[in-house]
Amino acid sequence: MPVPIISDDPLYRLLREGKIDEFNQRVAAGEQVDLTNCDFRHLNLQGLQAKGLDFSNSYFRQADLRGIDFTECVSLEGASIHAAKISGVYFPKQLRADEVLLSLEHGTRMRYSN
Questions:
Q1: Phi, psi (rounded to 5 degrees) for 102
Q2: Contacts of residue 22, Cβ cutoff 8 Å, sequence gap at least 6
Q3: What band does 1 get if pLDDT is binned at 50, 70 and 90?
């Protein structure tokens, strides 16, 4: 199993610093970022524009994800959201509700259904 990393990517660093608006602007302007296998523990990511982003195998333990729309992200497969705040989150249709609940309550890695 991949271990969550704290990347040196400058855009990822913006998220860690809470600069969500700047991150969104730079991604919208065409900058590329690799968020796979990243560590988002305890971060407040409210306002994040997830369209086109790949969060595969990322770790969101106790992160504040409230209101994020993940429906157009590349992937959340393998991600874990243990104890995260998920009120108002819109998950991809490939993620069944029981996968989300298991991850939220027990930290399991979410699997997409076909």
A1: -60, -40
A2: 14
A3: low
Q: Which domain holds residue 16?
A: 1-114
Residue 69 DSSP SS3: strand
Q: What is the largest CA-CA distance in the chain?
A: 37
Query: How far is the CA of 47 from the CAs of 18, 69, 70, 74, in angstroms?
Result: 10, 9, 12, 18
Spell out the residues 6+ positions from residue 54 whose beta carbon is closer than 8 angstroms to its own: 34, 35, 36, 73, 74, 75
Amino acid at 45: L
Q: Which residues are CB-neighbours of 55 under 8 A, at least 6 positions away?
A: 35, 36, 38, 70, 73, 74, 75, 76, 79
Q: How many domains does the chain have?
A: 1
Residue 98 tokens read as 């029981």
User: How does pLDDT run across 29-77, given as a tens digit for each residue?
Assistant: 999 999 999 999 999 999 999 999 999 999 999 999 999 999 999 999 9
Quick one: DSSP state of residue 5?
B
To 5 degrees, how large is the angle CA 24–CA 30–CA 32? Answer: 85
